[in-house]
Amino acid sequence: MEKHIGVVTFPKGLPGFEQLKEYTVQQHNELFGNLISVTDESVAFIIVNPFDFYPDYEFDVPDGLLEEIEITSRDEVNVRCIVTWNSDRNKVTLNLLAPIIINSVKLFGKQIVLQNVPYTTRQLLWVNNTTDSEGGED
Question: Domain containing 94 — which CATH number?
């Protein structure tokens, strides 16, 4: 069930990939999708809706960011986070410190780095009662 969402423009690129401004978003199933550079398909990220894994995830979005990607309504906000895959399912992590905010109507996006939050770049994706949700060593 692959679904092509469209091409999202990141006016300033993504951190580390500032020169790449356009990415296709493809949803592969209910949980996982991909963010793939239009101009360099070797630059691709696995993405998820963080709320599917961390229902209590919350952060403040600076007003300037909303203006930058032309968000005028809460309904236009789509949040995704990048996943770092590992062959060991228990070591797959999620970057909750730097969510990607997408205007789902105008298809503009920006990755932001949160300040003064308890999240890390390596939160464990699959959290259960016996697993530390702060991530860990490889």
Answer: 2.30.290.10
